[in-house]
């Protein structure tokens, strides 16, 4: 295959040499060969035709015929077929051959036709016939963009479409992105990014950008801003940059407080990240492998505007360097990157991860959840919180393998993603404490009552006794299922959430503020009307991980040490403080008020029902997991009792089941509805009719006795 047609020169008697095939050129590093002088007449067939295209790629059918017209004989061979397949013939027969066999089955792309080729360009396994080896000539297409040879026409069309979706619309083996005219500029939180037209389809683009994840990006930004107030500067990593929107927002708003590193393993994404940095007037610091080419400088002049862009696998970059803040947002599950994330993360640093594999986490694909997270789950009324606890359990086990414990700061499960933010605590003792909070859950499939299995390794004779319900005794068969292992600890840290809310107000993140208020109420298990921006104990002092941390409202005499992290002595001393002022931990899981409603009864309004439960002496709050969910420490039996007490019949006819209210019982001054009056009158008439019919029947039975009386 040295030259495309040179091996067939002896058979076809053509004194033409075409540049080497793209397959061989790719093996030699994609070095372009300059065509010889004898090739000029071939290249003049189409003046605007690129020189490195295969001869089977032409604009017009006449261009293929001109390749055969180079021979002066009357009989002309086909330029795309070997002589043993198609012998030389007259021009009219050759025209029909090229039109029917090559041109009609071609694949069109941007004015070019990729005709089917029968030359020996594609290596085919030989067929042994006796003692001779015959090389089979396979029909194929040559890709106009890359060096691939595709056999089927439908596969070729799909191959070209994948190039277009990735923005690769020019030929030669170097991947060339789409022209800038096809790019779209999106603005979010005062940050501009360029995206491809198909940016919202992750399977078809390298630089994925989802506008629906704006709330997720705002929550992560608030968490990073809180960490930046504790120590400065901090090194933060966006392990899956895509367009770089998240890292650009960090650097643009937090400035000198952070040193941002944006990583992506795709070359197109890295190129787009660099262009977006220039678009936002940021400097780009190249990684170690690219430092020889110098530093790419944007319009910014300050060192705080420098962003480091790396092109490597996320596991590699987290193994090589240490960070204070790491965010993982791969397409799908993030369990493959947890070990690397916790390997080098610094003490009291933060790891946040966004999981978008909701089909497995929300128990739609239970076998996938078992494979990825090692967790058995089923579809329940609290499936979103179950998903969050499943992810945290996997995070806890990964951190414990690195002798690190975690403190859950935030866990959010919405329609499109599950976000978990944890603080890392170094040492075997925090690791053991965190690992003990990973337990199994006993779930009743009849009434959906649930309880975490008791600690200990001893086997119980009857695990059903741990459930508050008596479904096992009243129902036949097995009524409960064992779920997990799951995280059994708290899902929120009230102090951290309050500081996140302050940062959201400071930077004007309107979408995150309502959710953060709901999370604070959920963490404290209170209703929204009792919400306040400061804790009742000390407005300026918040507590996390056993460490008291001052908020930005305090003076310079705070526990924060700017420039570097706290010394080990200060960390050990503060870590030993007890949580004396810390409120009780919020109850796990929640109940859906619709799931436990009584048939034929109207439920009370949700806010009124929360007040009824609170008046009964239980802690109660709404939950972001479910708009109709109620988080409370009340058992399910009491929950249903209060719900039944304050429910009303759906229709008037149903009042017959309850206590009968006679007209004489109506209090003075009350307005009696007209419908009720009519109902009462009809009932009285019916009673009179019944008594009259009974008297007539009695008279017919005993006429003599009645007449005597």
Alpha-carbon Rg, integer: 37 Å
> Given this structure, which CATH class of the domain at 186-288 and 304-455 and 466-495 is correct?
Alpha Beta
Arrangement of strands in the largest sheet: 12-13-11-10-14-15-17-16
Number of strands: 27
Distance between the termini: 129 Å
> What proportion of the residues is helical, as a percent range?
25-40%
Looking at this structure, what is the CATH superfamily of the domain at 186-288 and 304-455 and 466-495?
A: Vaccinia Virus protein VP39
* CATH topology grouping of the domain at 186-288 and 304-455 and 466-495: Rossmann fold
Q: Structural class of the helices, strands and pairings?
A: alpha+beta
Number of helix segments?
23
Sheet with the most strands, sense and barrel status: 8 strands, mixed
Principal-axes geometry comes out as elongated
Strand content: 15-25%
Overall pLDDT: 76
CATH architecture of the domain at 186-288 and 304-455 and 466-495: 3-Layer(aba) Sandwich
Domain C2H2-type: 143-163
Main location: nucleus
Region (Disordered): 20-47
Keywords: Isopeptide bond, Metal-binding, Methyltransferase, Nucleus, Phosphoprotein, RNA-binding, S-adenosyl-L-methionine, Transferase, tRNA processing, tRNA-binding, Ubl conjugation, Zinc, Zinc-finger
Description of the structure:
Residues 1-51, 127-136, 171-178, 288-302, 536-583 and 653-709 have low confidence and may be disordered. The chain contains 23 helices and 27 strands. It is elongated. It has an 8-stranded mixed beta sheet, with helices on both faces. It has a 3-stranded antiparallel beta sheet with strand order 1-3-2. Strands 19-18-20 form a 3-stranded antiparallel beta sheet. Among the domains are: 57-123 and 137-166, no CATH class; 186-288 and 304-455 and 466-495, Rossmann fold; 587-649, N2,N2-dimethylguanosine tRNA methyltransferase, C-terminal domain (Phenylalanyl-tRNA Synthetase, Chain B, domain 1, 2-Layer Sandwich), CATH 3.30.56. The chain has 709 residues and is α+β, with helices and mostly antiparallel strands. The longest helix is centred in the last third of the chain and has 28 residues, at 674-701. Helix content is 33%, strand content 17%. It is found in: Nucleus, Nucleolus. This is tRNA (guanine(27)-N(2))-dimethyltransferase. Keywords: Isopeptide bond, Metal-binding, Methyltransferase, Nucleus, Phosphoprotein, RNA-binding, S-adenosyl-L-methionine, Transferase, tRNA processing, tRNA-binding, Ubl conjugation, Zinc, Zinc-finger. Residues 20-47 are annotated as: Disordered. Residues 20-39 have a biased composition (Basic and acidic residues).
């Amino acid at each position: 295959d040295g030259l495309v047609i040179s091996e067939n020169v002896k058979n076809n008697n053509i004194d033409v040499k075409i540049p080497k095939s793209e397959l061989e050129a790719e093996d030699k590093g994609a070095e372009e060969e300059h065509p010889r002088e004898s090739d000029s007449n071939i290249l003049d067939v189409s003046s605007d035709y690129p020189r490195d295209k295969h001869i089977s790629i032409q604009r017009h059918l006449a261009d293929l015929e001109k390749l055969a017209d180079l021979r002066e004989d009357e009989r002309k061979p086909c330029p795309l077929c070997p002589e043993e397949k198609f012998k030389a013939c007259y021009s009219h027969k050759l025209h029909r051959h090229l039109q029917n066999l090559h041109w009609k089955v071609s694949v069109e792309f941007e004015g070019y036709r990729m005709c089917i080729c029968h030359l020996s360009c594609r290596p085919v396994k030989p067929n042994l016939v006796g003692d001779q080896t015959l090389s089979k000539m396979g029909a194929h297409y040559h890709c106009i963009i890359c060096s691939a040879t595709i056999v089927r026409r439908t596969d070729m069309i799909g191959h070209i479409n994948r190039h277009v979706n990735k923005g690769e619309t020019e030929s030669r083996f170097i991947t060339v992105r789409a022209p800038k005219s096809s790019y779209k500029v999106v603005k979010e939180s005062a940050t501009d990014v360029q995206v491809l037209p198909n940016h919202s389809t992750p399977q078809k683009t390298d630089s994925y950008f989802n506008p629906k994840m704006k709330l997720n990006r705002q929550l992560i930004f608030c968490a990073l801003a809180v960490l930046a107030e504790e120590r400065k500067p901090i090194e933060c990593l966006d392990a899956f940059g895509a367009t770089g929107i998240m890292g650009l927002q960090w650097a643009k708003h937090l400035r000198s407080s952070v040193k941002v590193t944006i990583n992506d393993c795709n070359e197109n994404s890295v190129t787009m990240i660099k262009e977006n940095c220039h678009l936002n007037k940021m400097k780009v610091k190249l990684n170690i492998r690219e430092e020889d080419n110098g530093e790419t400088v944007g319009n910014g002049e300050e060192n705080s505007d420098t962003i480091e862009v790396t092109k490597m696998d996320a596991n590699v970059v987290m193994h090589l360097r240490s960070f204070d803040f790491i965010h993982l947002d791969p397409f799908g599950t993030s369990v493959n990157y947890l070990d690397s994330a916790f390997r080098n993360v610094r003490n009291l640093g933060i790891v946040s991860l966004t999981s978008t594999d909701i089909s497995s986490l929300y128990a739609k694909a239970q076998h996938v959840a078992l494979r990825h997270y090692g967790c058995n789950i089923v579809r329940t009324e609290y499936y979103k919180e179950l998903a969050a606890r499943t992810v945290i359990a996997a995070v806890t086990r990964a951190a414990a393998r690195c002798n690190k414990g975690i403190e859950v700061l935030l866990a959010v499960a919405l329609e499109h993603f599950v976000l978990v933010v944890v603080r890392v605590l170094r040492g075997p003792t925090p690791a053991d404490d965190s690992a003990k909070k990973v337990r199994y859950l006993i779930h009743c499939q009849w009434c959906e009552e649930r309880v975490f299995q008791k600690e200990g390794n001893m086997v119980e004779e009857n695990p059903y006794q741990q459930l508050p319900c008596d479904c096992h005794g009243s129902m036949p068969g097995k009524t409960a299922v064992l779920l997990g292992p799951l995280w059994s600890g708290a899902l929120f840290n009230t102090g951290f959430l309050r500081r996140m809310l302050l940062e959201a107000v400071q930077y004007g993140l309107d979408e995150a503020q309502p959710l953060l208020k709901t999370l604070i109420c959920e963490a404290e298990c209170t209703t929204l009307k009792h919400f306040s921006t400061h804790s009742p104990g000390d407005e300026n002092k918040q507590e996390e991980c056993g460490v008291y941390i001052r908020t930005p409202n305090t003076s310079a005499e705070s526990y924060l040490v700017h420039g570097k992290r706290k010394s080990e002595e200060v960390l050990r001393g503060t870590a030993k403080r007890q949580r004396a002022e810390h409120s009780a931990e919020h109850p796990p899981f929640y109940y859906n008020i619709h799931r436990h409603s009584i048939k034929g009864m109207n439920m009370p309004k949700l806010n009124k029902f929360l007040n009824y439960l609170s008046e009964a002496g239980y802690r109660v709050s709404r939950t972001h997991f479910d708009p109709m969910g109620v988080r409370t420490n009340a058992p399910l039996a009491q929950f249903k009792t209060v719900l039944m007490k304050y429910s009303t019949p759906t229709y008037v006819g149903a009042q017959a089941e309850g206590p009968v209210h006679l007209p004489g019982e109506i209090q003075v001054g009350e307005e009696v509805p007209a419908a009720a009056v009519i109902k009462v009158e009809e009932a009285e008439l019916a009673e009179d009719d019944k008594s009259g019919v009974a008297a007539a029947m009695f008279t017919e039975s005993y006429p003599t006795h009645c007449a005597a009386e």
